Amino acid sequence: MRVKFDDIISKVTNLPTKTLAVACAEDAPVLEAVKAAKEKKIANAILVGDEDKIRAIAKDINMDLSSYEIIDKKDNMEAALTAVKLVHDGKADMYMKGLLPTGKFLKSVLDKEVGLRTGKPLSHVCVFEIPGIDRLLFLTDVAFIPYPTLEDKKCMIEYTVDVAKACGVTDNKVAVLAALETVNEKMACTVEAAELSRMQDAGEIKDCVVEGPLSMDIALYKEAAEEKGALGRKVAGDANILVFPDIHAGNLVYKTMVHMIPCKNGNILTGTQAPVILTSRSDTMEVKLNSIALAAVVAESMKKEK
Predict the structure, then answer these.
(1) In terms of domains, do 110 and 20 share one?
(2) pLDDT tens digits, residue range 196-251?
(3) Inter-residue contact 182 to 190 (CB < 8 Å)
């Protein structure tokens, strides 16, 4: 079965309702997403931040706050630490960034006392539903690790496979991307791509098929693979997980998709004790809502594993 975002949202509504802790919730697009998440029975929320501003914004967007817990914290770092502690202590299932700088938000995630660190690398996973492609695409890493090492990429693959499985995708095919389809010793990313493929063959990476190096056209389109004589590659034309060589390649592709293609997307931060929703100020309410739904299915999956 080909999974779409509507399937993820439907799946969430049939799960026990999750609770979202929002740091510095005094942000209109975030509150609109929180409101929609509650209306669609995706998640409840605890709103941490400047209560006066939260109530003013809620009034503007016709959001009834009577069923929400609000924790009044004027200082944004204090609000972030209060919100992340709710997740750390098991009082909330997911952690979301509101109106505060990304650096301060990540500082709260990594706080030694109340944060969500695991000792493993953190990585970013984006999920796209794109017209003309018959499957969800899972992209990593487009926003967090600048120059991932081989070990980072192994973790990135494992995290992303877990996210895909939580969404209901079981036949995961990973393309480790490069500009070439062959190993070139002068291009380290092609060497690492081949090593990741070998690691999967050896059972060191599980629950997926890994192939690399692959160019993006061969990874996504069978026609391109056929034209280039690459149909024999393990994931040619059928990859659903795309691993980028560095943040520049990933971010350029991400922004091209977001701004030039009529697509749906959502994203979360992985490698943490609980799902972390790190969206951009420029992201739409729909992207934020999709990200909450994505975090909810991942939270349920993590709960079952524990």
Answers:
(1) yes
(2) 999 999 999 999 999 999 999 999 998 988 888 878 888 999 999 999 999 999 99
(3) yes
